[in-house]
Structures are given as structure tokens and as C-alpha cells.
């Protein structure tokens, strides 16, 4: 059947981005529908029906020509409905999504596909002063510009040696432009080429030094023939470099993004993807100073001075190139005679001298600069040295500064892409500060939505229509807008429109607004990364280095690929920064230089070792910045000694060493450092000494062993709290992460600290946040706001406001991807009100987070660690003391604890049978919960202790009863093989004559994703935990992380009462009282075990129980017979013949739709059940379901039992 095409709907697509779809659509409307109002209508990202309707209502009563610029959106159904109801012209973007597959309706419309060969002609303005006319006239006269000036009216003066610019046709201009752009460019690249070249050619036309007459005069003076041919050299080299710059990285990034996207979809195996990604990374064409070919000259912003970028070395020497560069270099009145500037060897002050010329700055360089003015227009001019502060210029980033400034001057948006910490953001901020241009930054994260971006545009008065701006007044000053981390959110459609169309949801933005963005690359992780903590496939969100989205292809045309700094630049950063803080502490020049050399070599060696063993993203310039912060603190606060070389060991230990998880790599690292420091003191000696001093000061309770994990945790937490450097601690459950933090928090009370060591340091005030799968960006931001707000009341240095973020790993795997919001919050130099941040997790994060702080990776405990810990626990047990348990590798530690307790209770028996019973009970109490786990452990134990008899003997009911009765035991996790676990456990609790409460969680999406349901349940929990009761929990996985502190039983003491921290909502964490006799039991179906977090399971004593544990053999046979009879009865029962007056014939599908699927939350279905009971209509038809066919069935049953129970109490 022939498809029917809708003539008034046209779909435009192209083989690559930038082939002129938008322009073609606009011109088609203009030519074919002149009476229609053209409306540009971008559609994608976060959309809803209401938003679309409101945007269209503005045009009610008008005849509109609607240009839909389509982008990807998760709201596919809204888009499908939209396409089925409206007449449009649709522009399909280029990218990794096939929109014609997503929306089959598009194939019913007329389709126009554009390729590089069929792309529309350039639209050429007839005005000769336009950029394209200027460029084409210059290029058309390229062989004459050494003899003649190009005269451009209103730009330069006409002379006898000038050729007047003439109007050139579309065809002439197209042929000239495309002859210089050889790789089938798109229109974005063409426009960039024209804009940059035009700016430099206009400056050339205006230049006093570079006009024909002046060059001839200079040649008579200097007798340099290269001056005659310089103008053609200038244009030739400029065209070649611009062409390379705007086209070289585009295809590479597209290939990398497509590979990564295909791997994420599962179309390519991860092994193959890693191999190809590694090859792309090796051959990737990133911007680097040395790779610019040929060398070139740029005219600076002052219009007269020039920047000479010589990139060839002696081995690549081109005499013609060098001759032209030297000729123009000697014309610059600001330069001295001699060789060309070698940017690789410039000192910091020399870079500032060059900055003055490049950016046309009036500011004095520093206090020694006596020639520059100190004020301008009655405004004081700040020293350049004070503006750049500790920023380190290299040849590479200085060239980036020149080119980025050039792009922004020529109205080209800039997207800075590079590895985390490579200097993208800091460079943009430096340029804006130097040029005194207001720059407004939007720190984008996963929670950023279209409305947030629109509000940002409005608040900064960027709309052309002033009625849409916050201040309702016209702004004429130039501003820069910086969108940081653009590809972390789902609003790339809107960001692309803003940056490329200069409009926001179709509303135009002021012309004097320049847009810059920064992002990390969307790429596969090719490294053989260590996995500290837990390795669980379901927590590997992706195989990406960064948790980001691919950029739209149109934005890729404006990517400035930073890559990561090379070894030479890294060494220079290290050298400059170490010299800067060393010279403030060492006056003797000889000692200064000697220590500086040792420090530079050792730090560079450490930096390189980490990078080479992991990934280029594993270390960055942020480490080097942290070195200076730590050095100042160790010298002035902690050690206060003159043995400065020792301080470098501590800071290298913290910044590099403790992140190593593999003990063999740690050993190699130590050997490298000891070679670098060239002295007899062992690398670990000083750090270990400080670690032990801190451990002594915190006063470890009995049962807490001074193992390596605890000592490293205490040291890192203490230092990072004081320096306010963020700290991430990654390790498996039970490696003292939480304990160490609580010990330091408790000990650091300022002048009121119990130990004199801590009295020298500020008091710590903590704000706690509990990570979970329901964490949101907004909730995390609130806790940062609270922490910063606490500093408002006390601005002295006597307090530290700290955030303690527990279970960050669970927030990392949240569907909301909330952790991206912390990036800007953790930038040390961007936040005046600095707060400390301690984040702990059982899983590692992506590089962009780990890179923002010190990273402590806790290795597996070795044999000696386990022996030390076991002895400490065994020695600590005293039945007369109420002692906090030690959080180690919990099952092992509790095995030792129960052994110790039972031996003491039995007065250290010598009878073999009693010893055997104690050993078996201790094993059974701590290694149950999985099929045959106890048998396996007993088998291993039997190789060491031959007296183990029946390894299959296991009295599970006795273990469960002993746990519930013992208030010192861990809380209980019961695993069952059936859906009636709550019935089994309530029988046991009733047998003990104990009170109990039972809370069953909802599986409805609205309840699991929203915070209010969790808050409701957690409020009930905090009431129950203050009572003499047994609290039974089931199906509450989403909120268990909020109770981890309670499950740990690492209670805080206030008087004689215990308190645990409960996270009520996303940012409200408080301490609540725990009754001494309170017990907690969590029920899990056996099928749920693999879905649970190991840190959660690890906290409990675990057992599997079933009805077989409650019945004797005779009762088991009887129940089997009854079960078989019921099945026979059920199979003969015609379920589908049941009919109801209201709902008709009942089927599984009908019942599910009527009573389950239409409800989105517990409160909804609870109202339905209550209504049935109130109307005496008990037929809920749940007989149609097996429990696994409807995940909400047990929940419905729980609600019914609650209602029945409440009715019985009322009666």
C-alpha cells in the first residue's frame, strides 16, 4: 500500500550536522509561506504537554510556520502524541539517536535529506563590509597583498597602493571559501573560519606597522626582504591553522562518542570497545602548543602589537617561516632585540608582560612596574600579579588563552572539553578577570532542568525582550556566560539552542552576550582500574570514565579539546607552585634551590606513577594545588618545624600514597619515593608517627585495634577537616570508615577537647547526610547550605563546619544522579565560606568526583591486621561493661566477640563438649544466612580444629531466639524461602512474650522515588526505636540506608542514653534515642538477597528459616498433603467464571487493572481498601494472583491486615 504523504509537513535531515537545515527551513517558509509568521520551536530534553501548549498559545489566532528543532527526550510518549496532532516542519538533529525509528510517523511525511554534496549554497550578504566579503576579497587577491593594501570603506584609508574591495557573488565566495577548507566542512565550521579570519584581516587593514607603505619604509631601515612578503605569509599561515583548528577534532570526537554510545547500548562488547577507545585516545588530536602548524602571527586586541607563535624546533626548522617571524618580531616596539620568544622558557612575570599586549590591558604588572598607569577613568587598576595569584602559565595554556579570547571576540561560542582538573574552568575565569568582563556561571548538574536554565537567563537579564528579564531594564554591557559541566544534565537541547541560536525557547538573547561551556569527555574507561571496596556489577552504573551524556553533534563543532597536561607542563606546574610556597618559608637561596629540586622530582614522580598505573583522569592539576595547601598547614599548624623536607613526605603520603589499594603498588611507590628523597628516613616513618599520636589522642575504646585502616582513616580525616580539603574514603564494609569519623568528630572540641593534642585545633560542627537511591540534587544542596550557614554566626577560625556524607556510593547509583551537584561545592578556591567534607562509600565514584579531594582507598586487611583486631576484641570483652562494638570486617569481628562472651559466661571451661558447643554456636551465629554457608565454614574450621563433629547440625531457631534475647547482639536479618516470613517471625516473638511492630514497604513508583513516603515510615521507626519492642521491617530497601547508623549500633552516648543518627528526608539528619531493650529484625525473601547492598547485609546476624524449622517430621508430611489437595482443588476451580456486577468477568488482567495498576501510591490503594471495608464489600479478588505475579500483593495483604487489626481493636 502506498504511503500517504502530508504535503504541509516536511522532515529535514542531514548526513552530518551544520549542513544548513535550519537556514533552508527558514528560507523555504519565507518563499513558500510569506503570509505565515515564522516560529522557531526547539523541542526536546525535559518536556511536558502543559509546556508545549503554553508556548503555542502565544500564537493563537495567527497563521504560523512552525519550525520544530527536534532533540532527544525521555518523554517519548509526549513527543509521539505531539507529532500526531500538529502540522509542522521538523528538523532532525545529527547524533546517536535514529529519530525515524523512535517516531515512525515521520516516515509518513515528506523527507528532505541533505548531504555534504547537496548542501545549500552559502547565503552571501551584498554589503561589502560584511565578514564574508572581506575574507573573500583578501583571499581572491592573495597574490597581490604583498604589493597592495585592500581598501575597505569605513575600515581603513584608501591609498595609491590599494585595491578597493568589491562585491562578490554567491558562487565566487563559495568557491573561494571551500577551496581553503578541504575536508567537506559544515556551515558551523565555515562560519567560524570566516569570523576568525575576518577579525584578523580587519586588524591587518587597520595596522599602522603592516600596511604596504610602512613595510617598505621598514625594509629600507632594516634591509630585510622578508618584510616584502610578510602579508601573504601572515594570511597563508592563518588560514592553514584556523582550518586545522576548526576541523581536526570534530571527527575524532564523533567517533569516540558513537563507540561509547554503542557500548552503553550493548551493541559492542566492552572488551572490543576498550580496545578501540584506547586506539582513539592514542591518536586523538587534542590542542597542544607544539602541534600548531605552521607557526603563525596573530594581531593582538590593541590592533598594533602581535603575538608570534613559533612552534617549530631546530630539527623542524623552516628558514622561510623563521625569517618572516623574525622580521615582524623586530618591528614590535615593545620587544627587545634578540631571538624570538620561547614560551616554554618564560618566567611567570614574562607571561604577564605578554598578557598586557595580547589582551590590550592597561593594568600594571606588579609593584615593580613603574611605567603602567595605576588608575583609569578614576578607577584603580589592579596589578596583574594580584589577579592571576597562584595561577601557573605554561606555553600550552597561554596559547589556549590567546585562541579562546580570539574565538569569543569573533562571536564564536566555546566548548572546553578535557579531563577533570586539566584547567578548563580556571583558565576561563582568569581570562574574564584579566579583561574585567562580568562572567555569570551556572554550575550544571544532573538535577538541572530547563526551568533552572531559563531562570538563570532571566535573573541575569539576558533576554532581548526586557519584560522577560528580572530587572525589566535594558543592559548594554558585554557579559560572558559560563555553563560548567553541560553534559551532566538532560537539558542539552536548550543549552545548544542558547549557545548556537542565541535564543532560549525561541526568545532571542542580547547580542552582547558570549557563551562558554565546559565538559568532561563521554568516553569508555580503558584503564585497568583498581576496585577498592566492593565490586558488584549492579553498582557499576556504566563503563564510562565520567557519568556524562554525549554532546549533540552541532555543539561538537565548537569543542576546544583540552585533553590533559603533558609531562613537561605538569612538571612546570609542580616547579612553580612548590617554589612559590617554599620561598615564603626558606630565606637561604642555596637551601631553597636544593629542597625545591628534591620536592619537584619527588612530587612529579608520585604524580606520574599514579597516572601511569591508572588513567589520565586519575590525577590532575588539583593535586598540585592541594600540595600547597597541605604544605602551609603542616609547616604552620601541625608540625611547626624547620624540617621542611619531612613535610613533603606527609603531603605526598596523603595526596598520592593512600589512594593505592594494591599493596604491591604501595611497596613500589615507597621505593620510588625513598630514591627521590635521597635520605635515610623511611617514607612512612613520619606519617606513621603522626597517625599513632592521633590514635592516642582520640582514646580508643577497648576492642578497637590500631590496625592500618583505622590509623590511615584517622590521619586523613583529621588533616582534611583542618585544611578543608574534601576527603573520600572508599573501602569494604567494616573497615572503620564510620567509626574513625565519629572518633575524630567527638574528639575535636576546640579548647574544650579532652586531650591536649586537639586543644590546638578548632571545634568541629558536623552536618550529616545519608546517601541512598532516593537522594536528590536538591537534598544534597540543602545540606551544603546548612553547613555554610552555620559559619555566618561564627566567622573566626575557632570552628570548622563539616559535612559527613555517609554511603555516597548509594547516591552515586541513584536514578537521580545527584552527586554531580557537589562538584562546584567542593571547588576549594571558588568558595569563600569553606567547609570541610568527609564522604565515605563502599564503592568508588567516577573520576570527576574523586579528583576533587583526597582519596583514601582502604586495602584488604592482611593476616597481621586480622590477628591484631581479633586480640583487641577478645581482650576487650567484659560482661560488666556496656561497650561499643568495634566495626571491623563485621562477621569475623563478631565471631571473636561471641566467642569471648561465651567463654567468660562459662568461666573458661576445659571440658571438650562445652568448648565445642561454644565454637559451633559462635560460627552459627555469625556465618549463617546463605545455603550451606555454615557447613562450608565448619569444613574450613575442621582443617584447623579436628574435634568438629556433625558439620550439618545447625539449630537455627536457637540462634534466632538467642539473638532476640541478647540486647548486646547485632540486629537480625532473616532470610526465608516463602512469602510468609512475617508470620514465622511473629510466632517466634510471641513465644518470647515480646512486643513487636511490623512495617512493610511500598513498591509503588511514586512512593519509592519521592521523599515523603520515606519520611512517613522513618518517623514511625524513630518512635519505635525508643520503645521496649522488636521492630520488624520488610520490603523497605530504599530507606535502609537512612538507618545504617542504627543498624551499626555504634550509638552516641548522652548521659546514660544511646542515640542513633536517622536521615529523615534528603537533608534532615538527626539523632534519636534508642531504647536499651530495642531490637530490630529485617526480613528478606531469598530471591531478594542478590539485589541488596553488601554493606547493608554485612551489618546483621543472618539466618535462613522456613516452616520446616518450626514443625516436626509428622507435621511436615501433613502440610505437604494439605498443599497437594489445595492444588488439585485450585486446578479444578474455574476462576475466570467469577463475575461481578460492577466490574464484569474477573480475569488476572482485569483484576490487576482494577485493583492494582491504576494506583500509584500506598495512600491511594489504602483508601480503596478502606472504602471496600466500609461498604462491607470484601471481594478484593486477590485469589487470582501468585505473589510473584503481582509485586504489590504482599503490600496489599499487609494493608488489609492492618485495617482488620484496627477494626478488631475498635470492636
From TrEMBL:
SMART domains: AAA (SM00382). Pfam families: AAA_5. This is AAA+ ATPase domain-containing protein. CDD domains: AAA. Residues 410-551, 723-887 form the AAA+ ATPase domain. GO terms for molecular function: ATP binding; ATP hydrolysis activity; ubiquitin-protein transferase activity.
